[in-house]
Structure prediction request, 299 residues.
Amino acid sequence: MTQQPPWGGPPPAAPAPDAPPGPPMPSAFEPPQGMAPLPPVAPLPPGTPPAGDGAPGFAGADEEGEKRAERRLYITDVVAALVLGIATALSALAAHQGDMWGGQALLTYHQGTVKMNEATSAMLLGAQVMTVDAMLYTQWVAEGAVGEAQNDQTRLTVAKYIEMKLMGEDFRIAIGWASKTGKTPFEFPGYALGTPEQQEAAKIFPAFAGRPVQPYIASRLAVAAETVKAGEAIFTQGQEEDANGDAFMFTTLFYTMSMFFAGIAATLKRLSIKVTFIACAIGLTAFAAVKMFLLPFMF
Prediction:
């Protein structure tokens, strides 16, 4: 097969077998005779990017775009770390406040229980006073009636002793009112402690529910009724403190979800998804912080 010269033209004829060797064939990398050699190419200056198929400076633009993307990822990572730290600190504060309010509520409940025990003791004491009043009144009537009927000074002295030494002043006033009206002293409407407020307070006891409380009964159970009201107020306070503790602990749920989103965002590589997770974390943290700082703090 004959070789086509690189500069064109007809291929040379094949030499005869006995012909002497002719001049050497020009190389494909050498210019033909009569053509000037190509000028040498000047070397490129250091730092010049290699020319590609695209426009000049395209590789530099790609590098600048990569730097901006890395900078955006770095900023989002920093924001995610800040949100994670803030949510962690606020969650710890909320948990601490919840524990403090819970402990205070337990203490208040204990105080309410003590106050209710005092009310029970006061009620028992009031019932015993009413029993003693009834016994003294019965004995006073019996001794006075027999003493007058039999002109027995001893019985009259006993009746006088019961009235002056054993009965209270309010009960003696009620006896004087009863002797004039023909009623019993237990119906006396003018007991010092028989105010309408105390009568209403005495209705809290189941034994007096559904029927009016006489001033006498109200006077004997007034201390117990007031103590019960004080105990109920303490229990109400304990319920409010317990609710505050529950509200603080409820905010920790949102902080936990915020920390989850912020932590996942730090591991993601796609910017759009990372920003979405960070936005969710910021929203949850802000919502929980608003709810928390509207609650009363205990220091």
Observations:
- The CA atoms of residues 202 and 208 lie 7 Å apart.
- Residues 75-293 form one domain.
